[in-house]
Structures are given as C-alpha cells and as structure tokens.
Amino acid sequence: MPKLPKNEKIIGYALLILGVILLLFSIVEMITVYYGYAPPPKLFNLKDISLPGDNGSNISLIQGTQASQLPNLFFWFLLMGFVLLAGGKIASLGVSMIKDIKVEISEPMTTPANVQSAQ
Fold it and tell me: Does residue 37 belong to any structural domain of this protein?
C-alpha cells in the first residue's frame, strides 16, 4: 500500500505551484506590456508640455499621453518585479517544505553527568 503524502508536502506542492504561476504571470505581463500588445495601467495622467509662442498661442512639445507613459511603465515594471520576487520566495518555501530533512548523529549524546565525570 503506497504511503500517503504528509500535510506539509501537500502544502509545499501547493506553494510551489502558486509560486510558479506568479513567476509566469509576471513574466508574461512584462513581455506583453514591453512589446506593446497591452498598455500598462494608467496611474498617472500628465498634462501636455508646451511653450508659450510669439503670438500668444502655445507650442506643444510633448502630449500628455506620451508624458504619462514613462512613469506608468516604470511603476508597472516595479510592481511586476515585486510579484516576480514574491513568486520566487513562495516557490522556494514550497520546495523547502517538500524536501525531507534527515538528521544524522555522528556520536552518541552524553548527559551532563557523564561530561562532568569525564573531566
């Protein structure tokens, strides 16, 4: 009859799977935003950057949507980097729960009375 896994091993496998899912999710999200398949979330909405002209009109240098894109990308990649780091830590915790810990004792333990009499 096969031995059933311990609760720690079941939790370890669940943590490992969760960590790998978080790793893959953050990598896929970073790639899709980086290559332009999906826009990053809009955290910042900056106004147009413009200079005053000679006749009272403003000359637009950078549109607000383009100026907002850099901070939005930065904070999206920062968030996905945090998710990537958290996924790695969760997966490593799962792996450490799955591994069996074996302790080998090289010499027999002595009681304090035996240590005092030996001296």
Answer: yes
